[in-house]
Amino acid sequence: MSAASSADKNAELRDALLASLREHTALPYLFIGSGLSRRYLGLPDWEGMLRRFADEIGADLDYILATTGNDMPKAASQLAKEFHPVWWKDRRYAKQRKEFKASVRDEERAFKVAVAEYFRESSSLSTGVPGVDNHEYAQEIAQLRTAVVDGIITTNYDQLAEQLFPKFPVYVGQEDLLLSDAQFVAETYKIHGSCKSAGTLVLTESDYIDYHSRNSYLAAKLLTIFAEHPVIFIGYSMNDRYIRRIIDNIAKAVGPNRLDALQRQIYFVDWNDDPSSTPTLSSYFIEVIEGHSLPAQKIDSHSFTPIFEALSLLDRPFPAHLLRELRKHVYDLVAHPEPGQALETVRAIPFESEDGEGLRVVFGVGFFTEKDLEDISSISGRTLTREDLARDILGIRARGIAAHNALEHGIPGILRFSSNAYLPVFKYLRECELIDEKGKIHTAGLPEEVKDLLKRTPAPSDQNRRRYERDVKGKMNTPRAIFESDLALYFKLDCLLCLDPIDYDIDELREVLAEQLALANSQGTRTNLFKAIAYYDRLKYA
């Protein structure tokens, strides 16, 4: 096949696959197997990995495979037992023993440590591996890095997926998912463990028994992914026993009468070793439960470039990592409000309607007019917190707060929840030109909550003022001196309200308060801190 003809055939596959994927309402997941690591990192398949370690200790892998019925997990268990005494005594593993011997408490762990270290040291996409040295493979990797996918699932131990999709958070096994803030978008799931932690590897017979008996949560999530997304298997044999088990479990969960609902959800990439072969996308049926067949799509190709090109041409309204963060923050705002705030209700309403008053969480999709943007801006003011104002006043907030939003919505909204709170206000009054040259404040039209706040002057408690006069005055005259002392934190903060501003640079006060805002934890101390920040606002802008 000529180069031009080959390019045309690849383009046909790319276009056919792209059209097929665009029929789905959700973006695809990639299910990555060891074939991809062999292709780009030069790593062995399962049997090749076992043979490497068997040869290293002089074990006969062929005998082990024969006595275990060619069952790879059983063979791994047998090899682990033979590997155990060698690892403990042979000087080749002295470095591993020094680092990991405290964690080796059974006959299989030493083998897992050695396997994990091997894959960790062999995971780099750098000079010396096919994905860098081979021009064709390097092009495939460059294209794969741009793939538009909703997530990665892999049974591989190596770190190829992390290098290809570095912005995707990585979750290893069921425990990681259960104890994490996984959003199931733009994430990588290493369901058989990671070389970064030997204890997570699913390798031996006992590992697989434990894996299948305990991973109900992970299995449920996989089922959800298969039900909602197209899934592209790449780097696996179409006869892989583990993958067939996953598909059988999905088929059982769906039931034989609803298998057609999964039609076109599953894609298998079947690598063709013939460079002159014609790449194709065709229907394929997988035999599953009770003689039924699960429809799938088979991608037959020598080059993976047209596959990755198709994935790179898919459309996503938001960058993947941004969508994940957006989903997380909306969930946290609704499900985990700050102390003192009630749980929020999510409703679908026109934000310009009367029902939009008081909303704390707003999520909008679509095109907006200038009027819409003004309305959204006013709603954003209602979501402001006391810490937002503090960070803005101290100049450490990434995005500044519009002064009119703070005065009209932010400050009144916070004071409705906590009427006695100390809040910065003078910066926003000055930016709205409500403080004249003589320092007079024009309050006409301001919300009543803002007017009441102006009457409240931040001051230390009487007890702390007397203590300051007795123990501190004349000895420490600057904010930095106060905070370098051994005084209690609550008292240090009240001392700031007693210092004579003539004796120090006000920027020093800002720096000290910014440092404390990043460190403060207890609610009582934070109350004193926000009072001091309100005092700084008054000094700086009133």
From TrEMBL:
Superkingdom of origin: Bacteria
Annotated keywords: Plasmid
Pfam families noted in UniProt: SIR2_2
Protein name (record): SIR2 family protein
